[in-house]
Design brief:
With 229 residues, the protein is α/β, with parallel strands linked by helices. It has helices at 13-24, 31-45, 58-67, 94-104, 107-122, 134-138, 152-165, 172-188, 210-223, and strands at 2-6, 27-30, 68-72, 78-82, 85-86, 127-131, 144-149, 201-204. The mean pLDDT is 93.
Amino acid sequence: MVVTIDGPVASGKTSVARAIAHQLSWFCMLSGYLYRAVTYALMQQYPHADFHHFVVSDEDMRAILHRLVYQCDAQAKITILYQGVDITVHLKGAAIDQCVSLVSKQQVVRLHLVDIQRHVALQHDNIIVEGRDCGTVVFPDASCKIFLTADPVTRARRWQEDQKRRGVDLSLDECVRFITERDMRDEHRALSPLKIPADAWVLDTTHDTFEEVVARIMHELRARRVTSL
């Protein structure tokens, strides 16, 4: 069974997906981390590239994917290895934040990673998948689709706190600008734009705590008898 959790940047989908997977003892796949891992690998391979114009080749993608290993333990802790080295800690850096949407909009990247996500899902009976196009493109027939959202200022504050935990101090205005620009890129890219699946349960988390969001989703999954399997 596949449950998708989509949403814009800083909507809380990554943390929520992990928490839900942990409570259900399901496998958790964070598609955003896959795109970040590819971006990290490309930045290592081409440190001086201008990613506004850089085009990933099929050969580069195949080489990178052969060197990437995605792992998830019983607590839904995600680890990604590149060439045998754990790179997970590097995937939330500011440089990745700036470049990942430029890399992920490229057709060759998306097509390869869609195949990877579907392949991983086939290896697990039950899986929570988080991303931006999981319910619309990657798993259009998912058993349950959830779309998390919140108003831009709330998401900007969350992203600001996330950056502060990494030692990066940004003003709220800077964070709102980042969120707005990222939303524009995600919603208007030609391939797999961010949009709400027609059959998704939309959950606005603007006024909810993390614990409340997780509780609401668990309640919904039980109501749909998803957790009884």
